[in-house]
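User: For my dataset I need records formatted as: sequence, then structure tokens, nothing else. Please produce one.
Assistant:
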Amino acid sequence: MILLWIGSAVLLLVIVPVVVVLLGRVAAPVGEVERAAHELAAQAEKIVSLLDAVDELPETRRLVGQTGSEVSRYGAALDNVL
């Protein structure tokens, strides 16, 4: 019976504080990793929103080419007027 009391005292006075200290030392880095993961997710969300316009690139290329020919026509018309 006395060994049970000694074992319980050792558990409460030695093992439990060691476990609490180790959990405290692990909790801080886990919090930092969680914050970094949230920041990374926010940045990834911004990047994905920037990639939404990629589908419109062929139309943009076509319009830019069309604008170049229209500017040439405008320049030729100005030469005729002046």
